[in-house]
Each structure stands twice: as C-alpha cells, then as structure tokens.
Amino acid sequence: MTQPFFRQKDEMLSERPPPASTVGIIGWLRSNLFSNWINTSLTLLSLYILWMAVPSLIEWAFIKAQLSGDDRFACSEDGACWAWLDQRIGQFLYGLYPAKETWRINIAFVLLFPALAPWLIDNIPGKKWLRWYSIFYPFIAAWLLVGGWFGIIEGVTTNNLGGFALNLTVGLAGIVLSLPIGIMLALGRQSRLPLIRWFSVIFIETVRGVPLITLLFVSNILLPIFLPPDVALDAVIRVIIMVSAFASAYMAEVIRGGLQAIPKGQYEAASAMGLGYWQSMRLIILPQALKISIPGIVNTFIGLFKDTTLVIVIGLFDILGIANAMVSNPDWLGLSSETYVFVSLFFFAVCFSMSRYSMRLERKLDTDKR
Amino acid sequence: MKIKMITRAAAVASVFALSGIAATAQAATLEDVKAAGELKCGINTGLPGFAFTDDNGKWAGFDVAYCRALAAAVLGDADKVKYVNLTGKNRFPALASGEIDILSRNTTWTFSRDLDLGFTFLGVSYYDGQGFLGRTSLGVKSAKQLDGASVCIQTGTTTELNLADFFRVNKIKYEPVPIETNEEARKAYEAERCDVYTTDASGLAATRSTFTKPSEHMVFPEIISKEPLGPLVRQGDDRWADIGRWVLFALINAEELGVTQANVDEMAKGTNNPEINRMLGTEGSLAAMIGLDKSWAINAIKAGGNYGEIFEKYLGKDTPLAIARGLNAQWNNGGLIYAPPMR
After folding, report:
1. What fold characterizes domain B130-225?
2. CATH tag for A159-365 (out of 2.60.40.640, 3.40.50.620, 1.10.10.10, 1.10.3720.10)
3. What is the Cα–Cα distance from B215 to B212, expressed in whole angstroms?
4. Each residue of A316-347: pLDDT tens digit?
5. What does pTM read for this prediction?
6. Does domain B5-127+228-333 have CATH number 3.40.190.10?
7. Is A312 close to B87, i.e. CB distance below 8 A?
8. Which positions ≥6 away from A73 have C-beta within 8 Å?
C-alpha cells in the first residue's frame, strides 16, 4: 500500500494574523483610498488641494491673525482681523438686547436642555415629569425673553432680540411646531373627507409654491393693514408663524412620502385587528412612516434653521444681519470674510449635530431584517 | 440711491394697493408720535457712514442723526426713537402702511417717488451721485478715458442704466462685469476682475477706505448721475411734513449761523443776531407757528450738532470714509446746501 498523501495532524495550527496589507492603517488606506487608479488619482488630487488650501487658511485665521485692537486699522494686512470679537460677541449672540438683561437669554438657554432631554434621550430618570416640564417650557422661555407680564422683570421689545438667540428661538419654535402640523397635513391630504383633503392640499401647495421671503414680507407689510390698528402682532411671533407654516408644508410632503412607502397590507392588518383610524395611525402606520422619513424630516429641519437668516428682510437682526450691520461701521468696514467665517461656525455646529443625531436615531430604530 | 427695478415695481404695486387705506388711517402723525412717546424712524439695515451699530449696540450714522434731531425737536428727547430697519424692498410699503413715521434711509428724490408713490420729500440732506473707482496704476485721469475698460456693476439698479447712458453719450466702449451685491463687487474689484467699479460716490469712498493701500485707488472726478438723498413722509399730512422739513432746515441754518452743539445753550440766552434769536426762540414766535415746544430747535441742535457737525462726525475727513464736503458744503462755501431763512 502506498502512503496516503494526507496525514492527520494532532494539534491545531495557531492562528496567523491576516496579511499586513489588509489590516491597520495600511489596509484601510489600500482598500479605501488607493484601491484602483481612479481612487488613487482622486486621493492625490485631494491631498494636493488640501496641501494648497489648509496651511494658508491656518496662517490667515490663526498665525497672522490680529486678536485685539480698537478698530480695523489695528489689524495687519494679510491676516484675519478678529479684533472685533471681544466688543461685538455680545451682539452676535444676543443682538441689540439690552446688555444688562442678557442673563435672561442665558437662563432660557440653560433651561432648554431639560426640556429637550426627554424627547431626545432614552432611559432618562424622571422622564414623565420632564415631559410635563417641556410642555410648559415655551411659556417660561417667552416670559424670560419678553418679560414685563407680571412686573417681576422688565419688558423688552422683541425687535431687540437678535443675533444667534433669534436664530435659535425662531428655528426651535419652527421645528417644534412644524412636525405635528406637518403630520396632520400629511394625514389630511390622504383623508377621505373632501373638506379636510382640500384644505390640506390648498395649504400645502400655496405655501410651498411661494418663497419664504415673500411670506415674511407679507406678514410684515400686509398683516398690519388687514388687522385692526389696536392689534399689534409681535414681529418675532409673525416670523415664527410664517416659518412654521412654511416648514409644515414641506414636512407634510416628506411624511406623505413615508406614508406611501408603508405597504397597503399594514393598513388592512390594522383594520382587521379592529383598530380605529387614530389607533391604527398612532400604533401601526406613523411609527413606521416616521422612521422611514427621518432623513427627510431632519433635512427640512436643517433647511428651516438656515432659513432663519431671512428675517433681515423684515428688519430683525439675526446673527448674519448683525454681522452686516457691524461691517457697515466705518471702524470695521470690509471685514466680511471674518464675520462670515465666524457666523458659519455657529450654523455648522447646530446643523451638524442635528444630522449626527438623526443618524444615531436611524441606527437605533433600524429593525429591518436584512 | 438705487433700488432693484423689479423690487421697485413690486413696491410700487403694493403701495398702490395700500395707499387708499393708509391715507385715511394716518392724518395726524404729530399727535400719534406724541401719544406713542417715540418716533418710528425708518433707517437702513447697514450702510457705512449712514446707518450702522456702534460697539454698545446703538444705531449711529448720518441718517440716524436726523431721526435723533427730529425726535429731540418733537419729543424733547433724542433717545426716544424706535428704529425700524428697512431694506430697499420694504422701505416704501413700510412708510405707506404707517409702520414708520418718517423714512430717513438714503433715498433718492425722484419724480415718480414723489408723485406716483404718494410721498413728500422734505428736502435734500445729502447730494450723492454715481462715480467711478479705479486703480491709479491705470494711468487714467478721467472716466472719459475708460475706452474698453471692464466695469464692475450691480445688476438691476439705476446705476446700470446711468452707466450705459454715460458711455453712449461719450461714444466709448466698456465691458460690464455684472455683480449681485456691493460686497461682491468690492471683492471682484480687489481681485482685479474689473478695471473700475461704479456706484454712488459715498459708497465708493467707503469701499476705497477698506483697501489696504487706499492711495493706490482713486475716485474719478466725473459724477454721472444726480442722487439727491433726503428724508420723506407720507403725502397728506402737511403739518408733519413741515415739521420734518424745518428740523432739517434748522440744522442747516445752524451751521450757516455758527450755532453748534457746544455753544447752542450759550446762544439761546440771546445774541446780537436776530436770525439766531428767532431760530432759538428768544425772539419772535416760530415755535408757535410750527406747533412745537419753544426749545425745539435747541433740542434738535443739541441732539447731534448742526448739519456740518453731523457730516464731519459720520462722513467727514476725520472718519475712515473721508468724504469731502463738495456739493454738500454750504451755499456760501461753494456747495448746494441751502436752507430758506427762518423768519
């Protein structure tokens, strides 16, 4: 008999590490940046562009920058001029709000977080109480910002509310109002009752067919003429109403997209279970539809937040308007690059966190079987 | 100044629609202002030298100073002004609808605004005009030598039409570089995308002052359009218009007569000049005629100084804008600033 060409081995072979070229930094680089000649050339091109742009940007923004001084003449010629920051940061944050009252905006801002927490974070202690608190939060915040209702704190005209506080106020109010209104409009558009359906369709199509800037303009110029002269609707309230209406129309269409993605069987199954319309919507349809719509909803939120800069057309000074008013001061003329960079940091921080949160939420709710 | 033509059309249309309602609702502006205890004054959202915020968050500037003087004359306190910041789009509807009592927002007095839109211009507080800014290295001394030059210009404005007219009349060619906003135009000019930049002369002075070496740039002597800027009110309230007009004239006359913010209190005790005495109320009864407090003119002058002092403070040679008086000098000094006598 011939010897078999295989033989039994009694001990296991020890594990060997994967080839060096597929793990670690090198492996990651190979598979992501240099996998073929197109990716390689794109990587090199990007590196070249970064190499050209980043050092000069850092040099402009930090190394050659001027941090202190009374006006722009104190600044050097080729670096950024940040000398305005220490004097003007208050205006960028609070607008023309009286300086000695800005603590009220700060408190309203701090109180915002416990109001947001029960809706954004799971497993938070005292969730039920925090939810009740968050319902009352808008009134607390309005009282703090406007004041003068009970005589405890001085009244401030909301025209003076500005800067990033105004962006946050209008943006948050718009976000909080537009989601429920948008859901109702989306359901209304699919309703079998003609009156509700027509109202929803007309509202959505009219509001969506008009630029936001026009709505704001109308709210500012036309409303005071139609309303009786004694009724003076506050400028910020007018903006919040218009921004919410505008975002709601978009929101409704985003959610309608989610509703239409739900298979008809789900509706029928809900009916077969004996659930009424509201029960089936609340328990079966909307949880699924909203989950599908999360990217679109957050997209609308981010768009809404950035649209808050349009309030300048009705004479309210959001952070961008304050920046423009500042560079009209002869002492700070022509510093638009610096102020735009500064303002964009605020918007990036808010919009980027919204987008990261929505990605986390999507992963958490991802129950599809793949 | 200028306004985008499309938005002007929109503004005209909306003002037309509203003027009927507004005219009946607003008849006695002076009583409304006194009852409210504050003057609602329409100003720019930000224009170098004319309206800007200072470090304390207060509005200041040439246009703002007039609001303060008027509030001081009417209410006795220059701080009792509620500023309403207006864009080129909504300034006329805001005035027509009664949202503001007076518009002091670098607005050019034109035929159509005066008659068609139904406003009353109170006078000219600043004579502006469209000019050219170019590099001294071009070796050009006059705008008429700009044959073949590329010109940065804001689209959809009256400056665009003025420019076309100017080059056609002088039979020279140019290449327009259309730009959306003033700030973009400045950047484009700085990046040498165009040889010259054209807008109102006051705007050119502001732009020039932002350059690192202003001396390398010059404003050419030609002014190719007339832009008389001044405050305006709604038509139909002649008494209110008279008050606004004579506060402006009082500031101008004060400069001519040598009454300043510093010496007005001294002069109010009586001088040898009857004209000054009449203006400041120690002689005659002008205050009764205008229907204001006896010290209306004193208060107006104390608010921010006379016309010349306001000009120097916000636009003059000691400011970064460094605008020469030029047309805005007093009539007896070679300019066009001329106020009727106060008698």
Report:
1. D-Maltodextrin-Binding Protein; domain 2 (3.40.190)
2. 1.10.3720.10
3. 9
4. 999 999 998 888 888 888 888 899 999 999 99
5. 0.84
6. yes
7. yes
8. B320
Q: Which of B94, B97, B89, B91 is nearest to B24 (CA)?
A: B97
Domain boundary assignment for chain B: 5-127+228-333, 130-225
Contact B45 A329 (CB under 8 A): no
pLDDT band at B25; cut points 50, 70, 90: very low
Choice between A166 and A32, residue whose per-residue pLDDT is larger: A166
| Min distance B268 CA to chain A CA atoms (Å) | 34
**Of A51-65, A132-146, B14-28, B236-250, where does the model show the most confidence?**
B236-250
Q: What are residue B132's DSSP bridge partners?
A: B198
Determine the number of helices (DSSP H) and then strands (DSSP E) in chain B.
Answer: 14, 14
Distance CA B7, CA B16 (A): 14
Strands B196-200 and B149-154, sheet pairing: parallel
B99 close contact with A: CB closer than 8 A: yes
**Partner residue opposite A312 with nearest CB, options B45, B183, B209:** B45
Best residue in B45, B216, B217 for a mutation probing chain A (most A CBs within 10 Å): B45
Q: What is the pLDDT of residues A132-189, one digit of tens each?
A: 999 999 999 988 888 777 667 788 888 889 999 999 999 999 999 999 999 999 999 9
Complex confidence, ipTM: 0.79
Contacts A91 to B, Cβ<8 Å: 53, 57
